[in-house]
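Narrative summary of target 7.
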Amino acid sequence: MSGPFRAAPPAYLAPSDEQSLAGLLRWAWKHGVPLIPRGAGTGMPGGNTGPHIIVEIGGPAFSRVGVLRDGPGGTGSIRAGVGATGLEADLAARECAGFIPFLPSSGRWCSVGGMVANNAAGARSFRYGAAHAWVEALEGYFAWGEPFRAGPDGRGLEPFDRLHASLATSLPDGGRPLAGGWPKVRKNASGYALDRFVPSGSPTDLLVGSEGTLAVLTAAELRFAPLPAERGVAVRRVSSAAELEDAASMARDAGALSCEFLGRRFLELAGPRLGPRLRGLSRGAFALVILEAAGSPGEVSAQLDAVTRVPGPGSRSVLATRNPAEAGRLWEIRHAASRTIAREAEAGRYSTQFIEDSVVPPGQLARYLVELERILEAARLDAVVFGHAGDANVHVNPLVPTRDTDWRARLRKVFDAVTELVAALGGTLSGEHGDGRLRAPALPRIWSPGWIRAFAEVKETLDPKRILNPGVILAREGDGDPLDWLEPRPRAFPQADP
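Modeled conformation, tokenized:
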């Protein structure tokens, strides 16, 4: 498990097939026994662990991948069991000249079920959107053990239709306009996706990102996108948070495929791995921005020209290439982030992901980074900051000095301060990893009371006995402070980073 939490579940079960899974759900429903659906265990915020029976949905019966539709020019769809890895799904798409555009950096070992459950997003979601935009249908079981298939046609499935009709009366103006009260962020994995479900009524819109709290999924039908004819990569130096925000805005206007950033502390820790050219570029920088272009040769040239155009002497602050091998070497620096940070464990400082996924409106990125730095300095915490600049989705990895006796109290202060900052800026606490148990108690500080009531109605309708992952997304009285579960420790990596 890659997250920073410890737990002692009473049992760990792995159903061998759907019949066994259905029987387990019927038993749990009858006796009111809580279950935690779990995939590969790579989630960060504690949604895949806890004080309940863990049910691993994996093994051969839940891991098959096959092509459903092979369309022209790399379009089509696949059906993947939730136990398959993201990489296995991507390889199936590549056999049809396509790819899974929301594949996260953990794609080699995270599961398809986990990606759907968390509304996963990778670097290329900057152009293509998160998982929800690519899910055509979902198969699974309701909390009481009844099978279902939620297809692309949307409605016609109880109890989703009943919930949709109820929300139309319980939400102000039937939920219209959602834009008036929903965070204006480019991606979100917090709460329940009522911004999608209320307009569409489609069960898939609600299930994607629900973190195993509404149903147990067994398979997903995923569309894939055509592989681009050509790609190019540019690395750009920025000297301030404001310059980083401007670079992200430029990348959006240019239609770039990805817009990532590596903060100052990351660059210092990466050291020799950067190579002489990148070390020179990063010297004294606030951050390096990695921009990826894709499309036809002409489109790639236009995108690279737009995102690397820096007036005056700043032109020396950019490296750009369309050579695949060189582009791969530049991009590898971003993929090596987790291992670069993990090396600090040798000094007794453990990267602990407790404020690691906040997302703010794009125009608030600079303010968020400046205020974040002040919060960390006040708590005397060193941190490695990187993430998705184009989406204003920031990964913060405080290096927790566990030899200090007051480390937990300092983390609580940081968590509270960052939550208040995100709320003030109109953001959410998760852009792609979900709320889990960690962020659930903080949701009322981010979301208005009306949305919290609507989230509770969603849970009540689809899991009235509250046996599916209780305490995730919606906190429960008596669950205690999730920060008490924190256990900073070295990260485990099942395989090499992709």
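The CA atoms of residues 377 and 411 lie 12 Å apart.
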